[in-house]
UniProtKB/TrEMBL annotation:
GO terms for cellular component: DNA polymerase III complex. It catalyses: DNA(n) + a 2'-deoxyribonucleoside 5'-triphosphate = DNA(n+1) + diphosphate. Its EC number is 2.7.7.7. Transmembrane segments: none annotated. This is DNA polymerase III subunit gamma/tau. Residues 37-179 form the AAA+ ATPase domain. The lineage of its organism: Bacteria, Pseudomonadati, Pseudomonadota, Betaproteobacteria, Burkholderiales. Keywords: ATP-binding, DNA replication, DNA-directed DNA polymerase, Metal-binding, Nucleotide-binding, Nucleotidyltransferase, Transferase, Zinc. It comes from Candidatus Glomeribacter gigasporarum BEG34. GO terms for molecular function: ATP binding; DNA binding; DNA-directed DNA polymerase activity; metal ion binding. InterPro entries: AAA+_ATPase, DNA_pol3_clamp-load_cplx_C, DNA_pol_III_gamma-3, DNA_pol_III_sug/sutau_N, DNA_Rep/Repair_Clamp_Loader, HLD_clamp_pol_III_gamma_tau, P-loop_NTPase. DNA polymerase III contains a core (composed of alpha, epsilon and theta chains) that associates with a tau subunit. This core dimerizes to form the POLIII' complex. PolIII' associates with the gamma complex (composed of gamma, delta, delta', psi and chi chains) and with the beta chain to form the complete DNA polymerase III complex. The keyword Glycoprotein does not apply. Belongs to the DnaX/STICHEL family.
């Protein structure tokens, strides 16, 4: 038997099983129950959040042989054909490859004919923002006053590219990215049904890696099942995703807290020897610091299933809140500057050395043997320490911008036309007006 990927096998068939889009389901359910049916819908959202799935469920709700209902039967011939995309009255069109005015005109010519078997003829235009300007113009009249049997469903990942003339003719629904907790709960139900062994923290790691996309989560789960031989352990999932081992992050932060520069560099060398991505390491370190800061002000908000939950609570009790904020700022700036460093290792270690060099506590607690005299002269103010960090990493860019503006003003003053204006009319160049 042909294997069917999880994203297709577990595609929701009705509104009740759709994950994470309760606001859209509520609006459509009420409209269907009251028979208040619009002729055009626009579904927007990132990839894998349910735009195509929602279009198919809505089409079944409109065309189910039991009648227009928010709970289509899923068993009649019409529902089965729509699920299998075999219905002649439900047409899915990819606007990325059918974007011209000629192709849109051909579609509209077919749309005037009554449906073959269903109650309504539904055109689902995927990636609608890829249509040309002329193609959008060609569909405006039909979109505004379609035949009674015709419905349009437009789906897009970039609604800003849809002309306002089209937006004003559609009911607009923005599909949200799903929280990791929702994705994790859905994955656990699927894995139980598939008889796959798993660790909850491993599933949570997959859910976080999906970045709000249920389809991405299912694709990663498919990959994990193959990689881990149907036994999803935390270690196997980390290895598959190329994720940084959490022990590195915890040990690095411990070494920074203890002001142990030798241990920090030793850990960086060990990570380099294991070919760890330093970009991912900084990303995960920033995420860890964010969770620590969150835990300091809302201790109950970190769920027990959260990766590093115990370490997060420990660091939240050890580190002063202002120091966590300072470290987070250093790590995020270091991450943005990683591409400017001689290599990733240099950029990563310099970020860690900044964390050792700056602190937001009493100056005496922040000494290193090499910088005792300089440290004693520093202010203990957290705000000043943070400002020094920002000024240190941004002053070069600011000075370069000022220099470029001054050069541009000097060049403009030498322009013959500007000189003539100054000579004949007394015109002057306003300082700072050149962008």
């Amino acid at each position: 038997m042909t294997y069917q990927v999880l994203a297709r096998k577990w595609r929701p068939k009705d509104f009740a099983s759709l994950v994470g889009q309760a606001h859209v389901v509520k609006a459509l359910t009420h409209a269907l129950e009251r028979q208040q049916l619009h002729h055009a819908y626009l579904l927007s959202g990132t990839r894998g959040v349910g735009k195509t799935t929602l279009a198919r469920i809505l089409t079944k709700a409109l065309n189910c042989e039991t009648g227009i209902s928010a709970t289509p039967c899923g068993q009649c011939q019409t529902c089965v054909e729509i699920d299998a995309t075999r219905s002649v009255d439900y047409i899915e069109m990819d606007a990325a490859s059918n974007r011209s005015v000629d192709e849109m005109s051909a579609l509209l010519e077919r749309a005037i004919y009554a449906p073959v078997a269903a109650r309504f003829q539904v055109y689902m235009i995927d990636e609608a923002h890829m249509l040309t300007h002329h193609a959008f113009n060609a569909m405006l009249k039909t979109l505004e006053e379609p035949p009674p049997h015709l419905k349009f469903i437009l789906a897009t990942t970039d609604p800003k590219k849809i002309p306002v003339t089209v937006l004003s003719r559609c009911l607009q629904f923005n599909l949200k990215q799903m929280p990791a907790e929702q994705i994790s709960a859905a994955l656990e139900k699927i894995l139980v049904a598939e008889n796959v062994r798993f660790e909850p923290r491993a599933v949570h790691l997959l859910a976080r890696a999906a970045h709000g996309s249920m389809r991405d989560a299912l694709s990663l789960t498919d990959q994990a099942i193959a990689y881990a031989a149907r036994d999803l352990s935390l270690a196997a999932i980390r290895e598959m995703l190329g994720a940084v081992e959490q022990r590195y992050l915890v040990q690095l932060l411990d070494a920074v807290v203890e002001r142990n520069g030798a241990a920090v560099l030793e850990l960086a060398d060990e990570m380099a020897a294991h070919s760890v991505s330093f970009a991912h390491a900084l990303q995960d370190l920033a995420s860890l610091l964010h969770q620590i800061a969150w835990s300091q002000y809302a201790p109950d908000s970190i769920p027990d299933a959260e990766v590093n939950g115990e370490e997060i609570r420990r660091f939240a009790g050890v580190l002063p809140p202002e120091e966590v904020q300072l470290y987070y700022q250093i790590v995020t700036i270091g991450r943005s500057e990683l591409g400017l460093a001689p290599d990733e290792y240099a950029g990563f270690t310099m970020t860690l050395l900044r964390m050792l060099a700056f602190c937001a506590v009493d100056a005496n607690d922040c000494r290193t043997p090499q910088t005792t005299s300089k440290t004693e002269a520093r202010s203990a103010s957290p705000a000043r320490a943070a400002l020094e960090v920002l000024n240190g990493v941004r002053s070069v860019d600011d000075q370069a911008a000022v220099q470029r503006q001054q050069d541009a003003e000097r060049a403009l003053k030498q322009d013959p036309f500007v000189k003539q204006l100054a000579r004949d009319f007394g015109a002057t160049l306003i300082p700072g007006s050149v962008q």
